[in-house]
Design brief:
Layout lengths: L9 H13 L5 H9 L5 H28 L9 H16 L4 H14 L6 H22 L3 H4 L4 H10 L4 H8 L5 E5 L6 H10 L4 E3 L6 E4 L16 E3 L2 H10 L6 E4 L6 H9 L5 E6 L5 H11 L4 E4 L14 E7 L14 H4 L2 H19 L2 E11 L8 H10 L3 E4 L7 E2 L4 E3 L9 E8 L2
Parallel strand pairs: 5-6, 5-8, 6-7, 8-9
Antiparallel strand pairs: 1-3, 1-4, 2-3, 9-13, 10-13, 11-12, 12-13
């Protein structure tokens, strides 16, 4: 490309990424980096990312506003124009973009889409919204699912499960999540790391629920932070850090991380065990094994990495039982919507049934691999009782050799079985943990 070539249009790139996620079903974590790679200017990258994540986060509310304003909905082949209007609405409602710029820039893109006819439509809808904003929002926000921009099925489940907390959960899902790090104690102490950050002018503070946890005041490129190359820390939410802290792996124990990639919890287990556990990291998806191995390598930690299905141990298990098993089960990921707003649009009520069946199969298969006296930690990043308390309750009811071990920790809601961390609780992601011991 010549030096005179123009930088791509941030709003147009944002529109294409949104189409890729909402219409082609791609995950945001795939589509976003590809789109952002077109920019050399970090400010353009930041603005585009904000447009994409924000519009996805509020998509269901913006969609409801559009329905409210258009007597006749746009045809399906013009879904790009509908999304374009949503981008304009997002800027007017949620960003400090001057209204005339939000309208003008959005209208201009109809030309790039070769739909000159839509110029008047986009202009009209956005200008009408600016004039009638209060009336329109009052109408749209009468329905809580629309107001909080969540799918109706999910809103109903959350309100039923958490009659006192549902509003706080949905609000937390629409907030930006903080960036938490986990210091590798085999490389440095938390105090030393905080001092290194301070020396380069990066504001950070310890988190009381994890001896290794650090919260950065704002997001940054973590590969540029001191001690990254030496394996001095990892990125991991404080709620996810509770897995290893709850299972308490010891040097010499034979431990299985049953659904291990990308390896955040695997590496934490080995850090807690001072890199002296006999640790196996199992992962079913071959394409995710490389990232798992890279994380172990960067942090200087040992584990046997195996490709295999946790529900089918006969294909990979060597017959030696484990002292401890971490089962971070495949789940709806409804506890981490604030980090991945595309979950709202990709997950369906039908998925939950399939996932609970799979979780039960894996739990059953893994239980057979545990030594008498051993412990299994069942974990999900979900807030739905079907995947959490109801799942572990059914398992305990059906297994006389299983007993729940109460989790003594300052975080989370104590449930009939296990503990539930709700999104935003002490700034953490939504997670569930239940510790189960096999009677000797």
């Amino acid at each position: 490309m010549s030096g005179a070539s123009q930088s791509p249009n941030a709003r147009f790139v944002a529109l294409r990424i949104l189409q890729s996620v909402l219409e082609n079903g791609r995950s945001l974590s795939q589509a976003l980096p590809e789109g952002l790679a077109q920019f050399s200017d970090p400010r353009e990258r930041g603005f585009t990312q904000n447009l994409v994540i924000g519009t996805l986060r509020w998509h269901l509310r913006l969609q409801a506003i559009l329905r409210q304003m258009m007597k006749k909905p746009l045809k399906e082949k013009d879904s790009d124009i509908a999304l374009l209007i949503e981008l304009g609405l997002y800027q007017i409602l949620y960003l400090n973009v001057p209204e005339h710029a939000a309208v003008g820039e959005t209208v201009t893109l109809t030309g790039k889409l070769r739909k000159g006819w839509a110029k008047g439509v986009v202009n009209g809808v956005l200008r009408n919204f600016i004039r009638q904003q209060e009336t329109i929002l009052a109408e749209v926000d009468l329905k809580p699912a629309q107001k909080f921009a969540h799918p109706q099925w999910f809103f109903k489940k959350v309100r039923k499960a958490y009659p006192d907390q549902w509003e706080a959960i949905l609000e937390a899902n629409n907030q930006e999540a903080p960036l938490f790090l986990r210091v590798n104690p085999l490389v440095q102490s938390r105090e030393d790391f905080l001092a290194k950050l301070q020396a380069v002018g990066i504001a950070a503070e310890p988190h009381s629920f994890s001896p290794q946890g650090v919260k950065l005041a704002q997001g940054c490129d973590i590969t540029q932070l001191p001690s990254y190359e030496e394996g001095g820390f990892s990125v991991q939410d404080i709620a996810a850090q509770q897995a290893a802290l709850t299972l308490k792996p010891q040097p010499g124990e034979r431990i299985l991380d049953a659904c291990a990639a990308p390896g955040g919890k695997t590496t934490h287990l080995q850090e807690v065990a001072q890199n002296q556990a006999d640790l196996t990291a199992l992962e079913v998806a071959p394409e995710r094994l490389e990232r798992l191995s890279e994380n172990l390598y960067r942090l200087g930690l040992e584990a046997e990495v195996l490709q295999g299905d946790a529900a089918q141990p006969n294909d990979w298990w060597d017959g030696q039982p484990y002292d401890k098993i971490l089962l971070d089960a495949p789940c709806s990921a409804t506890g981490i919507i604030r980090r991945h707003p595309d979950i709202k649009h990709h997950r369906t009520a039908e998925d939950i049934e399939a996932l609970t069946t799979l979780q039960a199969q894996i739990l059953e298969a893994q239980w057979a691999l545990l030594k008498p006296g051993g412990q299994l930690l069942y974990a999900t990043c979900s807030v739905l009782p079907e995947e959490n308390t109801l799942q572990t309750q059914a398992f305990l009811d059906n297994h006389p050799d299983a007993k729940q071990v109460p989790i003594d920790a300052p975080w989370g809601l104590t449930q009939p079985t296990g503990k539930q961390i709700l999104p935003g609780d002490t700034e953490m992601d939504g997670f569930y943990y239940c510790l189960i011991e096999k009677r000797a």
